[in-house]
Amino acid sequence: MAFDSQRNRTVLFGGYSFEQESEQNDTWEYDGADWTLRNTPVAPPPRDSHAMAFDEVRQAVVLFGGYRNSISTASNETWEWDGTEWTLITPVTSPPARHAHAMTFDRARGEIVMLGGYPTGPSLGGITWIWDGVNWTQRAQFPTVPTGDFWNSSLVLDASRGEAILYGGKSGTEFLDATWGWNGTNWSQRTVGNIPPARNSHGMAFDEARGEIVMFGGSGAQPRYADTWIWNGSSWSGPIVSPPAIAVFDMSSRESGIWNFTTIDLPSGITVQFNKNTSNTPVIWLATGEVNIAGGIDLDGEDGFGTVTPGDESPGGPGGFAGGLGGRRFEISGSYAGTPGQGPGGGFPGTIPDEPVGAGNGSYGTKGTGSGASLSGEVYGNRYIQPLLGGSGGGGGRSANQGNGGNGGGGGGGLLIASSDLITLNGSIHANGGEGGGAGLGGPGGNGSGGGIRLAAPMIEGTGSILAVGGSNTNGQGGDGRIRLDGFDVSPSITSSPPASFGPPISTGLENQATIVITQVAGAGVPANPTGNLASPDVIFTETGSVTVDLQTTNIPVGSDLTVRITASGQELLETATVGPGGSAQTVFPMVPAGVGTVQAYAEFAAP
């Protein structure tokens, strides 16, 4: 993108479409209110990772380079956009082909500066190129030059000081954290004390009102940074944290999901989120003393955005289940079908080409719905929220000939907070289902259902809110979850959606919970902590046909029926297994298709 200051328009060209799994060559303009597609008879070939800058002297947006998947290499083309049409420029000298490079307009000298990028040949090093509107010129820099290839770095003009500032990027496997300034002749590295962590793929822009450069985000030692830094011409300040701050509970080393506290105090302005464990347990906080929740607790399922590649499903909150994958476009996969949402109420996938509606929405604890915008997910019938579980995922949307389906939203998570004293809730707790992803050419994904939230204490007071609603998009709504407040004295000022059920704070115990473990599939042993990740299957077998599934249960009465569910592209397979002596059970699926899928097991029974 580049901002055309003459016409007061932001210009966007091309890029990679995850929905179509290909580079684009469309031109869009944003006028501050609406995006407008500019249909042009001539346009640069499709590409991504190119660089654009507005040439204020010649009043044209200049585009250079980028990656062209159709020819499996980078480009060294120079194009100009004058607000009406694209023109391919053929300078006498051009820089080597590259992508993921950085460019900015140097207002003080009336030229465009370019550096770095991912090379197609030898390292690009710290070579600087200048565009004067007619030709590219390689500029020699002395006495110092930036070292490295600077993939996905950021280069921005500091208009207050008349210099271009370069920060970050990547060279080989190394993330960079150096700050460099370009004065039109030389580069100089800035020695500063407080520097942002090394990163690439971050964003930088000059704030003309304050005369400083603002940097946000990027990727480095952390997969995704969400911090803000300010460059004032001589030093960085930051990170600047915008409220609410996020605190993350890492559940990876706590497979039970249970924390024991004396007291709990979550202050205002802090939101707690959770990294799920491999067993996908809900969160259980137990306290002997008072619990004060003035901040937020976030157990939402994720929205159905991303690729349709196995392993990229939208996860549920802790204890909740993932949405299904949208169907991959027919011209690649030969199928229109998405995959079902996960969990006992996972939504059905879209399967029919040109179907006007999307995949089914997830429901909480009961069967998910089939396709249909008017068919929202259902609500689990156990108002006691026993066992504690999260919501189910929406189904993946059907594909089109040239477009993918939308992914299903993840189900909200599960949470129990119990205190022997008092729970005060003036903040918020939410375990909402994720929205199904829109798909453009394909069908939208189904919405995830809300999760389960239970608070238990002799007294529950406050004016806070609790939410466990299903995701909502044009494809209807995921089923609502369940909320329960167990206490002798419960404040009527606490709001909840869906409405909460109530009861006395009777301890249910956590030591004799029912369990179902899938031990073997087609004779292959299942890991003790299966990941459920489609990108790295826990069990692999090569024979198609009938498949035997062996299970082991605890604390489920002999003679109880288990539902065993296999999901694959476009379908779900259901069989029943009966618990025998010693808690073992077995069932046989007559025909399981080839491909990647999941196996899950559930039971409903009366506790003895």
Explain the overall architecture.
By secondary structure, the chain is an all-beta fold. Among the domains are: 239 residues, Neuraminidase; 89 residues, Sandwich (Immunoglobulin-like). It contains 1 helix and 53 strands. Strand 1 and strand 2 form a beta hairpin. The longest helix has 4 residues. About 3% of the residues have low confidence.
What would you say about this model in short?
A hairpin with a 4-residue loop joins strand 17 (154-158) and strand 18. 1% of the residues lie in helices and 39% in strands.
Classified by CATH, the class of one domain is Mainly Beta
Low-confidence stretches: 365-381
Structural class: mainly beta
Would you identify the CATH architecture of one domain? 6 Propeller
Helix content: under 10%
**CATH homologous superfamily assignment of one domain:** Kelch-type beta propeller
Instruction: State the total count of DSSP E strands.
Output: 53
The CATH topology of one domain comes to Neuraminidase
**Mean pLDDT level:** 87
**How big is the Rg?**
28 Å
**Main sheet: strand order:** 28-31-34-37-40-45
Largest sheet: 6 strands, parallel
Strand content: 35-45%
Apparent shape: globular
Distance between the termini: 64 Å
User: How many distinct helices?
Assistant: 1
